[in-house]
Amino acid sequence: MSIQTGDKIPAVTLKVMGEKGPQDITSEEIFAGKKVVLFAVPGAFTPGCTMTHLPGYIVNADKIKAKGVDTIACISVNDAFVMDAWGKSQNAEELLMLADGNGTFTEALDLVMDGSGFGLGNRSRRYAMIVEDGTVSHLALEPTGAVDVSAAEKILALL
């Protein structure tokens, strides 16, 4: 069963780009004692993610943080090099670009999307969640192909 509102975020290690290359970051470091908006995309540089999903969070980052959010994080089943390049290409300095390269976090949430028909392999379903001190307080899971309930404007309205 996939993660639900009220569930704790699983303990996993992800990657972010550091000064000397990819570095580990644990889910506890990201979520413990913080209010976090986490949104997941099927793939960096893909059209819906690049033209619709990510830009809303970039444009609304200040408004989201003004609502008491400590971190806005974007996660994808991509490596840290790709997530870093995508973030830089989109001027996403206000966002934490998380790499779930092996899909460990996505699998732990049971939110895997089979993108093999498009040559993508297993990826993450598109969603956004509000996480407070490691517990999911809201989950907005998209149907395949949609960018609606997980859009930045919808999440901002819930904060």
From TrEMBL:
It holds the Pfam family Redoxin. The keyword Cytoplasm does not apply. It catalyses: a hydroperoxide + 2 glutathione = an alcohol + glutathione disulfide + H2O. Its EC number is 1.11.1.27. InterPro entries: PRX5-like, Redoxin, Thioredoxin-like_sf, Thioredoxin_domain. Residues 3-159 form the Thioredoxin domain. Keywords: Antioxidant, Oxidoreductase, Peroxidase, Redox-active center. Belongs to the peroxiredoxin family. Prx5 subfamily. Thiol-specific peroxidase that catalyzes the reduction of hydrogen peroxide and organic hydroperoxides to water and alcohols, respectively. Plays a role in cell protection against oxidative stress by detoxifying peroxides. This is Glutathione-dependent peroxiredoxin.
